[in-house]
Amino acid sequence: MSSVLLLSTAVSSVSLALSRVDSGPFVEGTSESSFPSPLFSLHSAGPKGDNIYEWRSTILGPPGSVYEGGVFFLDITFSSDYPFKPPKVTFRTRIYHCNINSQGVICLDILKDNWSPALTISKVLLSICSLLTDCNPADPLVGSIATQYLTNRAEHDRIARQWTKRYAT
């Protein structure tokens, strides 16, 4: 009996999680819901095979950024507590960024303390795209890159473009 209850709870959690994923190009729940999100085409996500708790995502480097032209792959892992706990999102593609470390861990407030069950995967990916355009050197995971960003922006941008070309194209 308890295994049936656990399975029922898991199915309910997964159904709720899947219903919360944005499935179209429109941002839901806003007054601009009839307009496509300007960065929507820069990201996609979906399950890896049959495992609905493990997803793969692709983010295109935002135009005009040092990551432009890059294709970045991310892993998204959902816990059984989703959407009440944030998913774990990590970069699989190497990237030169002060808020993303060499293991692909992302320093982004909505993936930690500022998580809300109202956030969808599409909104999380949009926030990551925004982080690629505007890093947060005040809260870095890689202090040396943040320092370089603040003190020698031209060199930072040169290296970031070089890494994008080497690892993300």
Automatic annotation (TrEMBL):
Signal peptide annotation: 1-19
Domain of life: Eukaryota
Pfam families per the UniProt record, alphabetical: UQ_con
Keywords: ATP-binding, Nucleotide-binding, Signal, Transferase, Ubl conjugation pathway
Active site, UniProt feature: 107
Main EC class the enzyme belongs to: transferase
The EC number(s) this enzyme carries: 2.3.2.23
GO molecular function, one term: ATP binding
InterPro entries per UniProt: UBC, UBQ-conjugating_AS, UBQ-conjugating_enzyme/RWD
Annotated catalysed reactions: S-ubiquitinyl-[E1 ubiquitin-activating enzyme]-L-cysteine + [E2 ubiquitin-conjugating enzyme]-L-cysteine = [E1 ubiquitin-activating enzyme]-L-cysteine + S-ubiquitinyl-[E2 ubiquitin-conjugating enzyme]-L-cysteine
Residue ranges annotated for the UBC core domain, each copy included: 17-169
SUPFAM superfamilies attached to this UniProt entry: UBC-like
UniProt record similarity statement: Belongs to the ubiquitin-conjugating enzyme family.
Listed name of the protein: E2 ubiquitin-conjugating enzyme
High-level lineage: Eukaryota, Metazoa, Chordata, Craniata, Vertebrata
